[in-house]
Amino acid sequence: MSMFAVAAIALLVSLGLVLVRVLKGPTIFDRVIAGNSIGTLSVLLLAVMGYVFGRPEFIDLAITYALLNVIGTIAVLKFFRYGDLGAGEDEAGS
After folding, report:
1. What is the rounded CA–CA span in Å between residue 46 and residue 27?
2. Structure confidence by residue, pLDDT tens digits, 33-84
3. 13 falls within a domain
4. Structural domains counted in the chain
5. Residue 41 near residue 11 (C-beta atoms within 8 A)
6. Does the residue 38 lie in any domain?
7. Which of 30, 41, 85, 89 is the Cys-Cys partner for 25 at CB 3.0 to 4.6 Å?
8. Residue closest to 30 by CA, chosen among 41, 43, 42, 21
9. Residue 35 and residue 22 in contact, taking contact as beta carbons nearer than 8 Å
10. Is the whole model's pTM more than 0.85, yes or no?
């Protein structure tokens, strides 16, 4: 078994453990961070699979997914804090 196959298996096991945290997380913020971790592990898995199968375009997909993951996490956290995605910090207290 190659080193990259072991890395892919380790990433899949990590994804399973983080999925448990998403389902059981005591607070909503634990669940959001676990969801962000799923996105990060998916990016790593895409990069490893792209290398294993000799498909360099997987790296482009991984980078795009990583950017969407960061933007999505920020949007979800802002929604849970302010209750609105359009509210700025000065409008949130009103």
Report:
1. 29
2. 999 999 999 999 999 999 888 999 999 999 999 999 999 998 888 888 888 7
3. yes
4. 1
5. yes
6. yes
7. 30
8. 21
9. yes
10. no
